[in-house]
Structure prediction request, 676 residues.
Amino acid sequence: MLWGSLVWLSIMVQFFLLSHCSMKYPVRNIRSKIPGGKSSHGVKLIVEMNNSIVKVILSRPYGNVRGITYQGVENLLDSSLDRDDRGYWDCSWEDVNGKNGKQTKILGGEFRVITEKNNQVEVSFKTTWKRSDPLPALTVDKRYVMLSGSSGFYAYAIYERFKGWPGMFLWETRIVFKLSHRFQYLAISDSRQRLMPTSADRARGQSLAYPEAVMLKNPSNSKFKGEVDDKYQYSSETKDDSLHGWISLIKGIGFWIITPSHEFRTAGPLKQDLTCHVGPTCLSMFMSKHYTGVPLNVTFENGEPWKKVFGPVFIHLNSVSNRTKAISLWDDAKQQMRKEVRSWPYSFPQSQDFLKSDQRGSVNGRLSVKDRYLKVGNGPARFAHVGLAAPGDVGSWEFQTKGYQFWTQADERGIFFIKAVLPGIYNLYSWVPGVMGNYMYESSVTVTPGTNIKLPGLVFKPPRDGPTLWEIGIPDRSAAEFYVPPNETKYVNKLYLKQDTFRQYGLWERYTEIYPKKDLVFTVGTSDYAKDWFFAHVLRRLRNGKLQATTWKIVFDLSKVDRAGMYKLRLVLAAAHLAEVEVRVNRRESRRPYFTTGLIGRDDAIARHGIHGVLRSFTANLPGYLFVKGSNTIFLDQPRNEDIFQGVMYDYIRLEGPPQRTYQSLNRRHKRGTQP
Prediction:
């Protein structure tokens, strides 16, 4: 996989007569200058970037990618589609009233050559919003960069709004590539790789309860028959999505999107989003409300200015001469990804809005955990996730959409280093695997160009009012530790038979099969949450098709009760979709719950095969007189039953006793729960 060296890059402007679209008429081959003339009626211009390894054809002035030539293959994109529907940027938006929303391609109106040198070409396709234009009120400057000796090209864009512009909601923006049907093999991670069905296979399939899900009935490859295909089964968390793409086993060619930094993505490192899906389609998602719902809309008030750089991302192409080893292109692409990550921030983008290394700063420090009721678990915040994001409340980073975020993971000593941070004022946020709650440094952090800020020793004191009486689960912001039932015959995706089993379609129906009449009962000290706690608190479907609300029970013993004291039930949810959790103690028939979350969430994590959405934490204050010495029961009701996808996923549940001066601390966390 050795690429030839280059001596020059070129840009070529060509005319396409609409009446003879199969013929092209080159005007001139220009290396140093592009004429500024506009296209005449009936004529469209194209721009060609060529470095002798890759040739990219862009429409002018729209800036859509019409063709990519590589290794003798004339076009890696789907030539059967309209020329401006093969590679493009788009956005989804609504007006301030939440109406008139649509998905709109971002089409440039002005073309410019930013730079053209022997080793680099950068071109711009800019759309400028005018008051007479319809929404979305955005100016977008799309940039494409090609370097000599590079097996691909870079794409980035500057989004901008100015004072006085009308308000709007922006809830998605991305780059879309629709590839040639030569690409059949999908690769998202070392273990998430497979041959994929075709769009024609989906068209012949059976639509299921969720719109994007189809059961394959008559696929071109009989091995796919009976499988379910759903684009959300191939979603990834931001922190795990630096590389994804497709391999053509026929041609021995790989098409990859490499994201060397996630600073421009929204909602932090756990935000889940699409990667690739049947088409074959390859996506670079910059922002969306997938797995989060309305809270992740970017809301612009009337008159609010804004600017943000998305990217650059690298569209990388590679090949192998021995096509029987085409799958090895994944490993080669990983090497390229690591190279791109080491090169961040890039030095070559010409926009002044993309800041280089010497225009950025860094922050380092050490975080520890101090929980006065624990003897084991205090000390270094091992492998904590630590990030800088806009000032806000504790945990607010998960809902931030307009600015940049910079995250890293601490080592086993709790030491962290956040590099390449843009100048600005931030809060430092963190969470620690296995520790409940969110941390935020009490002081703001101001980063200036060239500075390396060393913070004083940071101490995270997790939420705590009393000793742990029992706990269920692990505070890790997901429901992955709970029981996910096998789905080996119905609604199966064979990729997930032995890994990420939560990604199988239809698992919400399995609850009814396992608990046809009576709901889940978890007995502290006896039950095992890995086997006895269903991963999602969902509804039961009755024989008549109606949906029944469900009530889960937690049964536990108390050897003594402080009737005058206050007990705390910590209820941490990994996901919620149009759901509610009501808490009752020892009296199921109580008309009013002692605590309710109210109606919460639009995560869609249950329907979209996620194991978490947005974290939500609640504390129910339960007076001691509710409890009795001996056996007690806490009832968790989910009463909302209008739609099969309503429900919650629990991350962690803990009952704390009243504060004590002397106590017996827990030394370890048991899968079977703990009792006093």
User: Anything to note?
Assistant: The helical segments are 199-203, 329-342, 507-514, 529-532. Confidence is low (pLDDT under 50) at residues 1-8, 13-43, 662-670. Residues 137 and 309 are 16 Å apart (CA to CA). The two ends are 62 Å apart (CA to CA).
